[in-house]
Amino acid sequence: MGKSVTSIGEILWDVLPTGRKPGGSSMNVALHLHKQGLTSNFISAVGNDEPGTDLLDFLLSQQFSTSLIQTNNLPTSTVEVTLDEKQQATYTIVESVAWDAITLTREAIEAVKQADALVYCSLTCRNEISKNTILGLLQDAKLKIFDINLRPPFYDIETLQALLAAADILKVNEHEIVYLRTELNLTGNNDEQILKQISNRFNIETICLTLGENGASVLHEGKLYHHKGYAVKVADTVGAGDSFLATFISSYLQGFPMDTILDRACKVGAFVASQPGANPSYGDEVFL
Question: What is the model's pTM?
Answer without folding.
Answer: 0.95
